[in-house]
Amino acid sequence: MEKVVGVSNQKLSWVLTTDLDSHRQLFYGLKNTHYEVDTYCCSCGYNKFIIKKADQKLGYDCEECNNSRFLDANHADLSIAHFLTSNYELINDLKLSIEIELAEDKLTTLLNRLEASLTIEIPSNIDFISEQIVYTKKKLYSVSFGMLNKFKYEYLIKHDQEKFDFIIEKIEQLLTKTPERFNIPHSNIIDKYTINHARFFLTYPHFKEFDFFYWNEVENFHEENVTIADVLNHLINHRQEKSVKKALYQNYIQQIKNKKFHYGFLRFISQEIIDPNLLVKVIATDLSKFKFSEIDLGNVKLMIGFLKIHYAEKQIVTMLESVPEESIETFFLDTSNSFIYAQEILQEEFAKVPCSLNDLHDEFVRCSNIFKNSEIIRVIFEYEELEKSKCRSGLDYDVRLPQSGKELLCWADDLHNCLATYYKQIKAKQTTIYGFFKDDQIQFATEVDIKNKQILQSARKYNRELTVDEQKALHQWFEIVIQGSINLTV
Length: 490
Ligand SMILES: [Zn+2]
Fold this sequence. Notes:
The chain is built from 17 helices and 13 strands. By secondary structure, the chain is α+β, with helices and mostly antiparallel strands.
């Protein structure tokens, strides 16, 4: 730990015993004297050096204040944990100093973990020339957090709410004083930065404007998305029409007034709706209305892409506008899910109904029921030994192969995606699908080309991208099990 030269700012009295021979600078030439130096550092500020024979025990009361209790610095230096158990009551009353720093996250090796520690300074050496005591800092209690918003505690003294609150208060004071030290961009509208702000910008260090904090679903933006203008541009696929940009900007300003921004399916709609006037209409509708939390936007995009085959853009936009806000989630969730199931047979089965969400919903449900009752539920899959050997547990996830079309349908039900439509390819041994399970629940599925050792695609619920943790787990599985480049004993 860090060395501090000078007077400790903590009011404890210590005695430190050092070997006289180690202070060569002062007693040069003397060797094996069998003398020691007891250094008494009193909390009143008075220090006393006493030379004595080794192992000799001398009593000492401070000459300034008569204090007679000196803690054993050698003991504390040797084993701080053991020292604390025998001096617990003393340490607990002590006003501990706090250190706050940015530290490296072990997993990502990025400087994105904030650590705050309560420390104690223990005399560890004496500089006789300057008569200064060298203190070493030891951590008694630390709280850290970083990516993935997890708090982590480590403590030698008792963990209690009071200490935790004290640390959080100190961190927030420091964040507010020097936000730039913690990568928090300046905000014009708030006067105090909190732990939540720090967590957000530690997790997304590439964002250079504070208002990103109010955005929903930011995990899809990467290093090149730095300013809000960049990201808004990215969201409308760099469409150049002035009217489109203006509509988006106005919508953004309107929403951010309430310290929230939902961009809904803006990204997909700006790819699918080519006519700028119609696109402006959708954007002006009120994007926040489309603040889906449960709905897979990828599925909605596929559905709109499909609708474009059968309907004019104008009809689609009219349908979107007409969806009542209160039922938007249920409507879209049901409709896009049914659409996904029905995908396999839509080409043959879809009957062109009026372009309204109700009619489309019913038509997709009708088609998906036909699919669910079709041959898929009777299909049994067979696998090669090579494919079976990749089902390894113990890497955080239980990796499984679907045994039947029925099981694949269950997985697809849980993931709300089109996994089930792969049953023919699996049956024909054209591809292999693995499910990654935790507590018997499927978390995500991945399609692998076993022969060429390639991951073709992966998806979690609602076809969303994998989380950082899941990506890591998949990567690990791929390296160990598929590529076999690392030998691991599981
Ligand atoms: Zn004293």
